[in-house]
Amino acid sequence: MSETNARTQILAAQRNDDSFPTLWDELEWRGLIHVSTDATALSELIEGEPFAYYCGFDPTAPSLHLGHLVQLLLMRRLQLKGHLPLGLVGGSTGLIGDPRPTAERTLNSRETVAQWVESLREQISRYLSFDGDNAARFVNNLDWTAPLSAIDFLREVGKHFRVGTMIKKDIVAKRLNSDEGISYTEFSYQILQGLDFLELYKQYDCKLQSGGSDQWGNLTSGTELIRKAVGGTAHAIGTPLITNADGTKFGKSEGNAIWLNPEMCSPYTFYQFWLNQADADVIDRLRVFTFLSRAEIAEFERQVAEEPFKRAAQKHLALEVTTLVHGAEATQAAIDASEALFGRGDLAALDAGTLGAAIEALPQAAGAVGSSVAQLMVDAELVKSLGEARRAIAQGGVYINNVAVAAEDQALTADDLLHGAFAVLRRGKKTLAGVTA
């Protein structure tokens, strides 16, 4: 099956849960609403006639990441309700970048940003339908900012913003209180994002913008600009940030982004991320990142409470989200690799890319034909000494590619190097390391 057909099937299988009175009720139950403008008005808007809505994605990297996936799934749920999604890729705002809490961004070249615009467009197209009466549409804010002179920008847009309000925005306030401060360039970002909403309101009667809750100041700059400039009413939804166990946000600024591009985060690594979710987090993840119904998620919640050792919820979460992002074939390869690493499958049957990604996630040792297995165990920190390595081998608890090492002085052979480059060392049932030639 072609990737296009597979992606079409994934989109066709997605449904909102009709056990909820309204979509707004479902969005709240799934934890997708952290902050919003008037909730009652938003619920009525969503239940009413089709309307246009948007989310912006800035090309400040060549790939989208986990936080963007939350936005794409929210956009898809609204599209399933019959509304019209606008995927904005920020050809102009990407040249500036929204302010980070800690330091000024490094500005990328116009050529790099243009390349990343196309990369993000391709990724976004995988999660929305571009067919039917409410087909998704791409927009680029460079189209309306590039022709705008500085004088016109200040007269027609800047006059509606008050500096006192702008400096109270959380990110701006943090930067103003930091040693580095904030440049006028990044300070102006909220005006540009507000202009985006105003332009889409004028061109498409766009009535809603969504984004992460850390973008709330930028989101409301648009609703306020629409009110002041043209007397219109528009809404915003801020989704919760996805954090790890200690509350740290996942994202490129924090250096721990889970990228959607398989070249930046392999399907195997992506699958393992979801598989390793804590019991305390997995149900919330199922609500946000899957289209499972309330009843289906309730059953997984029961299993987490009564049979946590089976990790059924984590396995299904990893299956669902990896299939959504990377497709069924890549997901099965990741599952096969997970099984094979622990002796429940054939390592030699894995393709080089999947095996290499799996090896990369393990402790490492460099080896070549003739290398001592005992020394490789020490180098990979599976044991503390050669003596401990030899004792483990003598006890029958050491494996290369799931085959028991028979002799204490056994050396790595050419046959041990899968794809001529990799081998998997295992001590006992669960302690693994990778060998790379």
UniProtKB/TrEMBL annotation:
Instruction: Give the binding site residues for ATP.
Output: K252
EC number(s): the record gives 6.1.1.1
Write down the superkingdom of origin.
Bacteria
Q: Which residues bind L-tyrosine?
A: Y54, Y189, Q193
Q: Which GO terms describe its biological process?
A: tyrosyl-tRNA aminoacylation
| UniProt catalytic activity | tRNA(Tyr) + L-tyrosine + ATP = L-tyrosyl-tRNA(Tyr) + AMP + diphosphate + H(+)
Q: What is its main location?
A: cytoplasm
Instruction: Supply the alphabetized keyword list.
Output: Aminoacyl-tRNA synthetase, ATP-binding, Cytoplasm, Ligase, Nucleotide-binding, Protein biosynthesis, RNA-binding
Domain Tyrosine--tRNA ligase SYY-like C-terminal span(s) in chain numbering: 370-431
Span(s) of short sequence motif 'HIGH' region: 59-68
Q: Fetch the InterPro entries from UniProt.
A: aa-tRNA-synth_I_CS, aa-tRNA-synth_Ic, Rossmann-like_a/b/a_fold, S4_RNA-bd_sf, SYY-like_C, Tyr-tRNA-ligase, Tyr-tRNA-ligase_bac-type, Tyr-tRNA-ligase_bac_1
Q: How does it assemble?
A: Homodimer.
Role this protein plays: Catalyzes the attachment of tyrosine to tRNA(Tyr) in a two-step reaction: tyrosine is first activated by ATP to form Tyr-AMP and then transferred to the acceptor end of tRNA(Tyr).
Q: Which NCBIfam families did the record assign?
A: tyrS
Q: What protein does this entry describe?
A: Tyrosine--tRNA ligase
Write down the species. Leucobacter luti
